[in-house]
Amino acid sequence: MASKELRLECPSCRARLTADVLTQKVVAWQPAGSATPFTREADLADDWARAARRVEERHGRGVDRFEAALSKEQERANDLDALFARSKAQREVDPDAIGARRARGFAPDSDDPAPHTDAWIERLAQAERAALAARARGLAGWEHRDPSWGFFEYGSIGLAVGPGYTEAFGLEGASDSELDAALRHAARHPEPTVRLLPVADFEQNAERLHRRGWRVAGLDAVFWRDLTLPIEATPRRSAVRRALGGDLESWRRTLIRALELAADDEQRRPERLAHEFDDPAWQLFLSSDEGQDVAAAASWIEGPVAVMAQAATQVDQRGRGHQQALIEARLRAAAEAGATTAISLPEMRGPSQSATRSQGFTLAYHQSLWVPPATD
Predict the structure, then answer these.
(1) Angstrom distance (rounded) from CA 65 to CA 309
(2) CA angle 224–345–287, rounded 5-degree value
(3) What single-letter DSSP state applies at residue 37?
(4) Which of 14, 131, 230, 275 sits between 20 and 30 A of 311, alpha carbons compared?
(5) CA distance linking residue 154 with residue 180, whole number of Å
(6) From the Swiss-Prot or TrEMBL record, what is one GO molecular function term (predicted)?
(7) Is residue 195 domain-resident?
(8) What is the pLDDT of residues 76-123, one digit of tens each?
(9) DSSP-based three-state secondary structure for 272
(10) CA atoms within 13 A on the CB side of 109
């Protein structure tokens, strides 16, 4: 006997099925109340084949998504590994650099830390933060300011919020609750960035940001110069002076022209810039050519560290040595004020950065820039 069919009906739902008792397979079934004829074995086989194909397709898509996510995660892990290695390398102390500084009068117990140590990097970063905080705080007195701008603190974390920037720094030593509060605040503003220093707890802080979905967007180089070394005089045709008293308005107008800012700018940047550098602690400088002010620059002195900040030259005057002259003047003024180290901020690109290198600036460290997870 090739087959022996048995027909059954459920007494509760009235569904019916037909089973082959020899092969122990269901060969046909009919739902309760259905007027459709029994589904035969061949139809069931087709249904199963289609279902199997759908499952396989979904599995394939799931595997592809998983592999893509895994690849992305591996890339992020590789980025972190590279940053960890860079952080470790930058923390290595150069004995020759220490010896050279001691030979110039820096005693082993001096408060001035040796280059490229954690204490040295943190001291430079503190000066950079102070300069950025001064700009953010300077906007507080501007009548047109956005109420959300300012400088905010969450434990050791500082958050500077202004037009075009949202910068968080100082994660070193911050608790998880302080970090979460700072990140929530930063995420409310456009293009928030967290700056992470290559110091001893870099790996721990990188992991904390990584767990919260933040990712590395790039690196910013900070350059430095030892102000105990001679400052080279640069040949120039320009005249450089400190912007004091009546020169302050000229400094602002010159910077506005050099940055090519329109007076009707949507964020009123000319007025805003005037307030950002309103703190009297800023040292402002002008460079002129034939009696016409054509370039402007600013520096901030924080203890033993001088920060070379905003600098710009009018388009028709670029390439004529104005930035070199301004850098030399700022370095001399900083040394006279007692600073032993100068740094240039990452915003100094192109000609300004070339000018700093011509005055003996070299790489101090790279700070990694972290951004929040992308939102759809």
Answers:
(1) 45
(2) 95
(3) P
(4) 230
(5) 9
(6) acyltransferase activity, transferring groups other than amino-acyl groups
(7) yes
(8) 656 666 665 655 565 554 445 444 444 443 433 446 678 888 899 999
(9) helix
(10) 0
